[in-house]
């Protein structure tokens, strides 16, 4: 899974920094792990932004055959030796997990969760940038006209702003492409 290009795109286009993106990815994959295994306690999620890859590891203690009391935290020596011949009792067994092991539906759900979390982050970023600008004048281009409101694209940021009909000057008519000035009255 190559994530290097995705990180670059989000940093430039969505204004989301690498540490935040890594944290969101880790959260999404930890949720995926919790759904399949019941807990994410003995799992490592490693996101390498330089190489652009993602690794999922399951860590369990190696115990003698027949003495496994908890499948989540322990693995029998025979199973561990099938993974790597050098393992011994008492060591930790590192088993790499692959996305294909989770199934198509789980991966699609993780994708949707990732998209929604990134949209939330973008929405919060837009909110913060405009909240401080309440009362400021903005210049934008009319993008769309709906019955009760006009959708304007802010020239400075490219974000869409909404001008309700009750805030417009009576008798003014707007067409797509018209330049408009307005005051940011309220940010929701």
Shape: rod-shaped
- Main CATH class of the largest domain: Alpha Beta
Output the structural class.
alpha+beta
Radius of gyration: 25 Å
Number of helices: 4
Total of domains: 2
The CATH homologous superfamily of the largest domain is named NusA, N-terminal domain
CATH topology of the largest domain: N Utilization Substance Protein A, Chain:P, domain 4
- Helical coverage, percent range: 25-40%
Strand content: 25-35%
Q: Assembly state here?
A: single chain
Number of strands: 8
Give the CATH architecture of the largest domain: 2-Layer Sandwich
Measured between the Cα atoms of the first and last residue, the distance is: 37 Å
Overall pLDDT: 85
**Helix/strand order, N-terminal first:** HHEEEHEHEEEE
Which parts are unreliable, with pLDDT below 50 for 5 consecutive residues or more? none
What's the structural blueprint in terms of helices and strands?
Blueprint: H1 4-14, H2 18-37, E1 43-48, E2 53-63, E3 74-76, H3 77-83, E4 92-97, H4 104-131, E5 137-146, E6 149-154, E7 160-164, E8 179-183
Parallel strand pairs: 2-3
Antiparallel strand pairs: 1-2, 2-4, 5-6, 5-8, 6-7
Helix pairs in contact: 2-4
Written overview of the protein:
The structure is a single chain. The protein is an alpha+beta fold and 188 residues long. It folds into two domains: 4-129, NusA, N-terminal domain (N Utilization Substance Protein A, Chain:P, domain 4, 2-Layer Sandwich), CATH 3.30.1480.10; 137-183, OB fold (Dihydrolipoamide Acetyltransferase, E2P) (Beta Barrel), CATH 2.40.50. Helices cover 35% and strands 28% of the residues. Strands 1, 2, 3 and 4 form a four-stranded mixed sheet that branches. Strand 5 and strand 6 (149-154) form a beta hairpin. Helix 2 (18-37) runs antiparallel to helix 4 (104-131). The protein is rod-shaped and about 85 Å long. The model has no long low-confidence stretch (mean pLDDT 85).
């Amino acid at each position: 899974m190559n994530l290097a290009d995705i990180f670059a795109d989000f940093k430039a286009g969505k204004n989301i920094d690498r540490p935040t993106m890594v944290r969101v990815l880790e959260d999404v994959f930890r949720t995926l792990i919790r759904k399949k295994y019941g807990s994410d306690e003995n799992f490592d999620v490693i996101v390498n932004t330089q190489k652009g890859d993602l690794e999922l590891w399951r860590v369990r203690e190696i115990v003698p055959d027949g003495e496994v009391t908890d499948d989540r935290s322990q693995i029998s020596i025979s199973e561990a030796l099938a993974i790597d011949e050098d393992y011994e009792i008492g060591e930790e067994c590192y088993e790499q997990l692959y996305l294909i092991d989770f199934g198509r539906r789980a991966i699609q759900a993780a994708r949707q969760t990732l998209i929604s979390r990134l949209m939330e982050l973008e929405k919060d970023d837009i909110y913060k940038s405009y909240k401080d600008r309440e009362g400021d004048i903005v210049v934008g281009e009319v993008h769309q006209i709906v019955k009760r409101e006009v959708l304007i694209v802010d020239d400075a940021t490219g974000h869409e702003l909404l001008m309700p009909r009750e805030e417009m000057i009576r008798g003014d008519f707007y067409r797509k492409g018209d330049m408009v000035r307005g005051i940011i009255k309220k940010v929701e």
